[in-house]
Amino acid sequence: DGAKNLCDRMLSHFGVFDKEMSAKLLETYLALYLKYEGEHISAYDGMKETLVELERQGKKLFVISNKPCVNVKNALKILYGGIDFCEVLGGDSGFALKPSTDSLFALMGKYGYKKEEVAYVGDGDADAKLYRAAGVFGISCLWGYRKKSELEHVGATVFAEKPSDIVALTK
After folding, report:
1. Strands 61-64 and 85-89
2. Can you tell me the distance from the alpha carbon of 28 to that of 39, in angstroms, rounded to the nearest whole number?
3. To 5 degrees, how large is the angle CA 88–CA 91–CA 93?
């Protein structure tokens, strides 16, 4: 749900509901995230090869994240350098956070895609809610943040157990 909501939830867990303290925590969190960026991340096995194959097939790749855009772009460069992402939208790109469809519809409009031309791939419940609300084909990844039962609970029906499954599911 984005870094701000994460900070709000962390504080509320301890009974703190202070906007000023939340803003300070968010500022500290983002500074530390940038300082240690790349030290504690790694690519999922087979993900880079999957992205290379999708790109080879002529598929256009986009990223929509609730994380700040600079962090997403830096992580993509570290993990998937050489992959051409047409556009990367972060939680600070001016759109409502996922599961809002605003960012997806903006990209579709900008690049001229129809719903039936889109495959939305994500690993969270916000992603499944987004692609269901948008009416586009969606693939939920089982190696991410949510269990299959959690994704099914929000309406996901198509699953990738490993990155290479995405290639087969998008043919």
Report:
1. parallel
2. 17
3. 60
CA distances from 88 to 16, 58, 62, 65, 68 (A): 34, 18, 6, 8, 10
The single-letter DSSP state of residue 114 is -
Burial (CB count within 10 angstroms: exposed 0-12, middle 13-18, buried 19+), residue 154: middle
Tally of CA atoms within 13 A in the half-sphere of 108 that contains its CB: 17
Q: Using alpha carbons, select from 4, 9, 64 the residue that is nearest to residue 30.
A: 4
Q: Is 60 in contact with 111 (CB distance < 8 Å)?
A: yes
Q: Which of 34, 106, 24 is nearest to 69 (CA)?
A: 34
Strand ranges (DSSP E) for 8-166? 61-64, 85-89, 119-122, 137-141, 159-160
User: Is the full-model pTM beyond 0.90?
Assistant: no
**Tens digits of residue pLDDT in 2-32:** 788 889 999 999 999 899 999 999 999 989 9
Cα 146 to chain centroid distance, Å, stands at 13
Burial of 110 (0-12, 13-18, 19+ CB in 10 A): exposed
- Confidence grade of residue 123 (pLDDT, cut at 50, 70, 90): very high
